[in-house]
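Example: Glyoxylase-like metal-dependent hydrolase (Beta-lactamase superfamily II).
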Amino acid sequence: MELRVVVAPVFGTNCCVVSSGADCVIVDAGAGVVDAVTRLVDDEGFTPRAVLATHGHADHTWDAGELCARYEVPMRLHEADAYRLADPFGTLSPALEAAFGLHRDDYRAPAVVEPFATPGGSAVLTFGQVTLHALHAPGHTEGSTLYRPDGDVILTGDVLFAGSVGRTDLHGGSGQVMSETLRDVVRGLDPALAVVPGHGPATTVARELETNPFLAADRT
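Written out as structure tokens, the predicted fold is:
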């Protein structure tokens, strides 16, 4: 498994291209990544098998429709966040919508959406040679999901950042549910895993367990 990151120009979303052999999946196609992702895919000779999202906010799904159409692949995300794809701005605050600098009329929803469930809190998703372990991690949104490819890395979306965690004050967010996710899901992760968050620098589970004040507070 290999992972490459393309940083979106809007809100600095980390768009990840996860590959195994010639197959790849694209995770969190934020606004403005189409050209860079297409160059990467072409240069490496990859065959995209799906576009995924860690959750349904616009900064993680804006270019998903374009990439799905370009590669004729489905959009995959947790079933609890699938409703957001029809209007990814609809569940954001007016201030955040304005901050995006994007226009609703320019949004292209994915034509084929295949939500997945996580019975018991997890699921294994297979796309050709790429396998991802999906861990349901609600709190930021109802369907927020961590993706762990085969290997020593985990994609945490807007659940866990270097030194922080995702906000819970937007539609579908919950501080109580986030606390439960931090306690029951994040703190149970292998400390050896590298973390690629939805925004900002990479970190490690071990570092966050030791220094992240939100995880430290959650110990009580």
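The longest helix spans residues 34-44.
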